[in-house]
Amino acid sequence: MSNPFVVGFYVPEEYFCNRSKETELPEDCILKARTLSFVR
Questions:
Q1: Handedness of CA 12, 4, 23, 25 (dihedral sign)
Q2: How far apart are the C-alpha atoms of 17 and 6, rounded to whole Å?
Q3: Could you read off the pLDDT of 3-35 as tens digits, one per residue?
Q4: Which residues lie below 8 Å from residue 4, measured CB to CB, with a gap of 6+?
Q5: Cα separation of 27 and 2, whole Å?
Q6: Half-sphere exposure of residue 36, counting CA atoms within 13 Å on the CB side?
Q7: How far is CA 33 from CA 24, 29, 30, in A?
Q8: Distances (CA, A) of 1 to 5, 7, 8, 9, 10
Q9: What's the superkingdom here (predicted)?
Q10: What is the per-residue pLDDT for 31?
Q11: Residue 25 contacts by C-beta under 8 Å, 6 or more apart in sequence?
Q12: In sequence order, which residues have a C-beta less than 8 Å from that of residue 26 and are 6 or more positions away?
């Protein structure tokens, strides 16, 4: 089975849809120069 994730190069917009809610917190942290960690 091949890896379903695109890694190692620019990922086009078509791979990201309806993600405005998920990007709200990281974008806010970037704009305010805050540190953010993602824990799975």
A1: negative
A2: 15
A3: 777 778 887 777 777 878 888 988 999 999 999
A4: none
A5: 31
A6: 13
A7: 14, 6, 5
A8: 12, 16, 18, 20, 22
A9: Bacteria
A10: 95
A11: 36
A12: 36
Record the tokens describing residue 14, joined without a space: 């078509």
What pLDDT is stored for residue 33 in this prediction? 94
Q: How far apart are CA 15 and CA 12, in angstroms?
A: 6
The answer to whether the CB of 36 falls within 8 A of the CB of 29 is yes
**0.70 exceeded by pTM:** no
Confidence (pLDDT) at 9? 83
